[in-house]
# Entry
Amino acid sequence: IRLSNERVTTAAKLWGAVHSGAWIGKLHNLDEMEHALLLEQSLDKTHVGSKEGSTKYPHPGHVLMEVSRHLNKDIAVCIDTGDVTLWAGLCLKLKGGSRTLSSEHLGTMGYGTCAGIASILSREGPATSLVLVGDGGFQMTLQELATFQQSKRPGDRLIVIVIDNRLLGRVIFGFDGAKGCELMGPDFCELGKAYGGHGYRLDDAVAIGEHVRDAEPGLTILHVPIDPTVKADMATFKDGASKMVNSG
# Structure
């Protein structure tokens, strides 16, 4: 997307706010244009290694921007542990009254799917949960999809977005010389069908958002392969300030 000089300047200021710590309150008040500009600016800041072939993948920021358009207070957003946690923290825009569940400080991969099911069953039905999870975290507790199918009520919806980079991203980007981080996985679309639900492999951010909006009752898995050379920025907090650190 080609931006005017004024829009580039605005985007640069927004991204600068992320790195300076001013984003802590700012991101909750962005209008739609500012949110889009921030994500566009991030495209040039999150690649590591070769960019060859990366255009065939959707950028995680774009995916979450489109998903954000279709969130409402009745959808509980359950975020797993890994790169997806950072992407959600940077790029997901919640609406007033939204409920978000995450496993902070514990690094509990596989949490998101279990949280999504528990969130549905703890509310009056029908209820909806959206799970944001990486391919590594999803494979740690995907068997709990059977729990959802056995316990769901009419109209309940469990929507799982699998952000698939075929890596343990937080390990390979965060530790020099890390080994054994490459992953393989099942056909996530067929997995959804095997558990009695629906499965879709998508590479268009707008279509992903629309699938969230239009998801049918029951289980829906949205398989979203992304460029494995793209990493999210990490922030650390000290004395109320935020400092961006090199996470890879």
Q: What stands out?
A: The longest strand covers residues 157-164. The radius of gyration is 18 Å.
